[in-house]
């Protein structure tokens, strides 16, 4: 599989105008992508749970233009025009133009909204970029009818990756692998694929409660963080470890061994942050409350024997992961013991989800 196959032949249909809409979720990595080559080709494979409640809805309206000299688009968030979003989308359009050659033929209106609070510290790039990529694919599908849903999803994931790496894991669910790994058949650096092996009942409806420990702007963006893996003293070992961890996750997912699962994902989360702390320049994205929460989770787990674990993304917020069957007691613990470590006591209850959905546009 190469990039070439995503370059379309001549389009068979002429579409003058229309509107499409998709809602696409966020995802949380269990084995982390940290470090990349050009065009978001990952240095190591990753696997994530697709989320359900945290998502972006995007409505894309398009009308054919007279001239095709440049891109023409406007972006709105919650109905408000956002000129500051323009450069990121323009960079994305430039990157994907060869794969979507119709991009300069239309004037676009991109209207987007998120289910999670805008300044929650939850990155909207995975859900936002995948929702936009899916809308563009829906237009391409009209220009070239007959594409298979497998190709549609693959190309949507491929395009999302060019917008923001981890966004390629948001198209489908419930477990998505991205990055070539010899133990996962069909895995690719170019797009995310559904995890193809058996998954134990224990992981069905797995819960993710996101503790909003710090809602501020990150001091170091993930783009800068990824780049600091170039020449990082532990990079080679870390990339090899991610491959090994993915291989060890396979029997854990199959047998439903929750203790081994927790040990693996917590180690992955702390390794990600260890890479940040050992970069040059070094940086720390965790906050005092991140550590308070982690210590309380460990103490509660020891005391109760319940299967509560955590993971972290590139920020201070904590994703508390646990099986649905233990949700009642764990949620009570979160409310009474952990919420006080969140800004304004805020947390978001989410769970494993099954990917993006196309929305029907009411034309009236
Ligand atoms: O997709 P990016 O460039 O925002 O990087 C995401 C990196 C992590 O969230 C830390 C890990 C991951 O695999 O999602």
Automatic annotation (TrEMBL):
<dbReference type="Pfam" id="PF18376">
    <property type="entry name" value="MDD_C"/>
</dbReference>
<keyword id="KW-0443">Lipid metabolism</keyword>
<dbReference type="InterPro" id="IPR014721">
    <property type="entry name" value="Ribsml_uS5_D2-typ_fold_subgr"/>
</dbReference>
<keyword id="KW-0547">Nucleotide-binding</keyword>
<dbReference type="InterPro" id="IPR020568">
    <property type="entry name" value="Ribosomal_Su5_D2-typ_SF"/>
</dbReference>
<keyword id="KW-0444">Lipid biosynthesis</keyword>
<dbReference type="InterPro" id="IPR036554">
    <property type="entry name" value="GHMP_kinase_C_sf"/>
</dbReference>
<dbReference type="Pfam" id="PF22700">
    <property type="entry name" value="MVD-like_N"/>
</dbReference>
<keyword id="KW-0067">ATP-binding</keyword>
<protein>
    <submittedName>
        <fullName>Diphosphomevalonate decarboxylase</fullName>
        <ecNumber>4.1.1.33</ecNumber>
    </submittedName>
</protein>
<dbReference type="GO" id="GO:0004163">
    <property type="term" value="F:diphosphomevalonate decarboxylase activity"/>
</dbReference>
<keyword id="KW-0456">Lyase</keyword>
<dbReference type="InterPro" id="IPR005935">
    <property type="entry name" value="Mev_decarb"/>
</dbReference>
<dbReference type="GO" id="GO:0008299">
    <property type="term" value="P:isoprenoid biosynthetic process"/>
</dbReference>
<dbReference type="GO" id="GO:0005524">
    <property type="term" value="F:ATP binding"/>
</dbReference>
<dbReference type="InterPro" id="IPR041431">
    <property type="entry name" value="Mvd1_C"/>
</dbReference>
<feature type="domain" description="Diphosphomevalonate decarboxylase-like N-terminal">
    <location>
        <begin position="25"/>
        <end position="183"/>
    </location>
</feature>
<feature type="domain" description="Mvd1 C-terminal">
    <location>
        <begin position="210"/>
        <end position="347"/>
    </location>
</feature>
<dbReference type="InterPro" id="IPR053859">
    <property type="entry name" value="MVD-like_N"/>
</dbReference>
